[in-house]
From TrEMBL:
<keyword id="KW-0560">Oxidoreductase</keyword>
<dbReference type="InterPro" id="IPR016084">
    <property type="entry name" value="Haem_Oase-like_multi-hlx"/>
</dbReference>
<protein>
    <submittedName>
        <fullName>Iron-containing redox enzyme family protein</fullName>
    </submittedName>
</protein>
<dbReference type="Pfam" id="PF14518">
    <property type="entry name" value="Haem_oxygenas_2"/>
</dbReference>
<dbReference type="InterPro" id="IPR039068">
    <property type="entry name" value="PqqC-like"/>
</dbReference>
Length: 247
C-alpha cells in the first residue's frame, strides 16, 4: 500500500508521472522541430490549439471557484494566471491568432469550432471535466503540472525553428516566447501548490494519476495532429520513425 511521501519524494514522483509522455515525442513535434512541416500544417495546429488553450482561463475559473478559501495563495495564483491569459497585456489568444494568420489562415477559421479535430475536442472536454469535477488540488495537478508545465520544454525546441527555418518575425512568434517564460513560472507554482496541499496518501496518488493522464492526453492530441493533417504528405519514414500511432 502506498505511503505518504515527503515533498522531495512527491516532486520526483510527479515528474516521473509525466516523464516519457512529453508531446515532444509525437511525430508532429519532431517534424516541427526539424523544420519539415509546411506553413499550412502549422496553420492547422493553430486552428486546433486555439480550442485547447483558448478556454484555459475558463478551466482555471472553475477550479478557482471551488478552491477552499483557506488556500488563499492557491486562489491568488489561479486568479493571476487567468488575468495574464485574458487582460494582463496582449490577450494570449490574440497572439496565437497573429501567428495563425502569419501561417496563412484567418481569425474566422481559427475561431470556428468546426475546424478542430475530434481529438482536440476530447482534450478540451477533458480539461473542462477536470476543472469542474476533480478535487481542486487534483485539478491543479492535472491542468497546471500535467499540461502547462510541459510547455516551456516543447516551445524551446520549436521556436528557434520558426525563426531560422520558416522566417517568422519576433512579433509573429511572440505567443511562443511569452509562454516559455510564463508557463515555466506557472508550472513551478503549480508544483508548489500540489506539494503543499496534497497532504494525504489518497490525494497524492490522485495527483500522480491525473498528471500521467494529462501528459498522455497532450501527447495523443499532438500525435493526432500528425495523423489528421500531415501523415499523407510526410510519412513516419521521412522523420526517421517507425513506431505505430495510437488510433
Amino acid at each position: 500500500m502506498p505511503e505518504l511521501m515527503n515533498q522531495d519524494e512527491f516532486r520526483t514522483a510527479l515528474e516521473n508521472a509525466i516523464k516519457g509522455k512529453s508531446a515532444n515525442k509525437s511525430p508532429f513535434s519532431i517534424a516541427w522541430a526539424t523544420g519539415k512541416l509546411s506553413r499550412a500544417h502549422l496553420a492547422r495546429w493553430a486552428e486546433n490549439h486555439y480550442h485547447y488553450v483558448g478556454p484555459f482561463a475558463d478551466y482555471l475559473g472553475y477550479v478557482y471557484g471551488r478552491m477552499p478559501a483557506k488556500y488563499q495563495e492557491a486562489k491568488d495564483f489561479l486568479l493571476a494566471n487567468m488575468y495574464e491569459e485574458e487582460i494582463g497585456g496582449d490577450r494570449h489568444t490574440d497572439l496565437l491568432i497573429r501567428f495563425a494568420e502569419a501561417c496563412g489562415t484567418t481569425r474566422a477559421r481559427v475561431e470556428d469550432e468546426d475546424n478542430m479535430s475530434a481529438t482536440t475536442r476530447a482534450l478540451q472536454s477533458w480539461c473542462y471535466a477536470v476543472a469542474m469535477r476533480e478535487d481542486p488540488i487534483v485539478a491543479v495537478a492535472g491542468l497546471v503540472v500535467g499540461l502547462e508545465s510541459q510547455v516551456p520544454s516543447i516551445y524551446r525546441r520549436q521556436t528557434p525553428t520558426l525563426r531560422e527555418k520558416y522566417g517568422f518575425t519576433d512579433e509573429e512568434v511572440e505567443f511562443f516566447d511569452l509562454h516559455i517564460v510564463s508557463d515555466e513560472i506557472h508550472g513551478e507554482r503549480g508544483y508548489q501548490i500540489v506539494l503543499e496541499h496534497a497532504n494525504t496518501v489518497e490525494l497524492q496518488q490522485r495527483c500522480l494519476k491525473i498528471c500521467e493522464i494529462g501528459a498522455e492526453m497532450r501527447l495523443l492530441y499532438t500525435t493526432a495532429l500528425y495523423r489528421d493533417y500531415v501523415e499523407k504528405e510526410l510519412p513516419l519514414s521521412a522523420l526517421g520513425l517507425d513506431m505505430p500511432l495510437a488510433a
